From TrEMBL:
Residues 1-232 form the G-protein coupled receptors family 1 profile domain. InterPro entries: GPCR_Rhodpsn, GPCR_Rhodpsn_7TM, Olfact_rcpt, OR51/52/56-like. The keyword Repeat does not apply. The chain crosses the membrane at residues 34-62, 82-105, 142-164, 185-206, 218-235. PANTHER family: OLFACTORY RECEPTOR, OLFACTORY RECEPTOR 56B1-RELATED. This is G-protein coupled receptors family 1 profile domain-containing protein. Pfam families: 7tm_4 (PF13853). It is a multi-pass membrane protein. The lineage of its organism: Eukaryota, Metazoa, Chordata, Craniata, Vertebrata. GO terms for molecular function: G protein-coupled receptor activity; olfactory receptor activity.
């Protein structure tokens, strides 16, 4: 479980690294110019990291399922080798899902203003500068988001249905409380991530100000990465105790 938490944090850091340095340079020094190629690369990096984050959350759900429903075989199945393989598969899958969005946007003809009023390059932001009919291009981005979200939520629901079914049959008292506590930590992270993503997607399709869009994009990309360490640090006793010892509070 701890290796998966490290992977989740690494993905969070990679996503924020693609956004925050450029944003801060623009705010501090006015270095707010970006080429189309760099913008598309930033889009690819951000979307790959976001989809990969969803994959890591699914692997964590699998980890919880094996730990609770197959405890005797857990260490034989959920080893570092399997986690590495699943992560690499997720990385390749995330790149494949992100590529169609970047490809179709790169072929768009831009004839409006060359100024984007957002702190990061996104699909809808660039399409707002495009000429002609972009409905088919918008469908590509929407289909990718629906596919990724539906797949992630479905697999997470199936995993937790099995977990709760097995837990209610075999666990009692403190064992039940510990199991539910461990699962609830992961569920809090899942709900946070998907609710931020859905809110951002919905708000890009309704007429609201750019400032509000920027706010919710920042919440979507940056809030989970900021909050995840606090969630796991507070709710997982082992991590909390280790931090307290390192800070010499205990």
């Amino acid at each position: 479980m701890y290796s998966l938490i490290c992977l989740l944090f690494a993905v969070n850091i990679s996503c924020t690294t693609a956004i925050v340095p450029n944003m801060l340079m623009g705010l501090a020094f006015g270095l707010d110019h970006i080429s189309l190629g760099s913008c598309l690369f930033q889009m690819f990096f951000i979307y790959t990291a976001v989809i990969l984050e969803s994959t890591v959350l699914m692997i964590m759900a699998l980890d919880r399922y094996l730990a609770i429903c197959r405890p005797l075989r857990y260490h034989n199945i959920m080893n570092t080798h399997l986690v590495g393989q699943l992560f690499l598969i997720g990385l390749v899958q995330s790149s494949i899902f992100s590529s169609p969005i970047i490809i179709v946007v790169s072929q768009v003809h831009f004839c409006r203003s060359n100024i984007i009023w957002n702190f990061a390059c996104e699909n809808m932001v660039l399409l707002n500068l495009a000429c002609g009919d972009i409905s088919k291009i918008q469908v590509v981005g929407m289909m990718v988001r629906i596919l990724v979200t539906a797949t992630g939520i479905s697999l997470l629901l199936v995993s937790y249905l099995y977990i709760f079914h097995s837990t209610m049959k075999i666990a009692r008292g403190k064992a039940l409380h510990k199991t539910l506590h461990t699962c609830s930590t992961h569920l809090i992270v899942v709900v946070l991530n998907y609710s931020c993503g859905l809110s951002s997607s919905i708000l890009y399709r309704i007429p609201i100000s750019v400032d509000v869009q920027n706010l919710f994009s920042a919440i979507y990309y940056l809030l989970p990465a900021t909050v995840h360490p606090f969630i796991y640090g507070y709710r997982m006793k082992e991590i909390r105790m280790c931090l307290l010892k390192s800070w010499k509070i205990l």
